Amino acid sequence: MEPVFYWIIAAVVLGAIELFTGTLVLAMVGVGAVLAGIGAAVGAPFWLQAVLFGAGSVASVFGLRPFLKQALESDRGGDQSPRAFGMRAIEGAEARVIEKVDVSGGLVEIAGDNWTAYPLEPDQALEPGDRVTVVEIKGATVIVWKQS
After folding, report:
1. Which of 46, 48, 32 is closest to 2 using CA atoms?
2. How far apart, in whole angstroms, are the C-alpha atoms of residue 81 and residue 78?
3. What does the DSSP assignment read for 57-126?
4. Which residues is 19 bridged to in the sheet?
């Protein structure tokens, strides 16, 4: 297999791992792998590919990464705390009761999606139209509390 394919594989693997870390460091090292792959594609010797990889990685970590981080953080309006996403973003969200929610279950709407719901306290019955807060997520159901 040609060296260019090894560099492409390295860049793809680094990019995939970056999706799980979110630090932008591995993505910048992936940029170095892409530069080395370009060098390999034009027939550069291995030592030059290694130099391109190292120089591209260092340059992008110290040159490109700060600008990307600043652009991503300016999106938050100065809030430096990490954003919740996935299931954690739903906890604390406001929901609207669609079908009566009691100890046997019910249905709520959260940001346009319908969820099976149970009340936090077993004696609580929530009527359609009530506003509730999502307290906890258990599998595909949510535990809700009626807002005052």
Report:
1. 46
2. 9
3. HHHIIIIIHHHHHHHHHHTTTT--SPPP-THHHHTT-EEEEEEEEETTEEEEEETTEEEEEEESSTT--B
4. none
Stated pTM of the model = 0.50
Residue with tokens 């019955």, as numbered in its chain: 125
pLDDT at 31 over 80: yes
Give which of 28, 30, 1, 2 is closest to 14, Cα–Cα.
Answer: 30
Question: Which CA distances in Å does 60 have to 48, 68, 100?
Answer: 18, 10, 55
Q: Is the pLDDT of residue 77 over 70?
A: no
Which distant-in-sequence residues (6+ apart) come within 8 Å of 59 by Cβ? none
Per-residue pLDDT tens over the stretch 90-136: 888 889 999 999 999 999 998 888 999 999 988 888 999 999 999 98
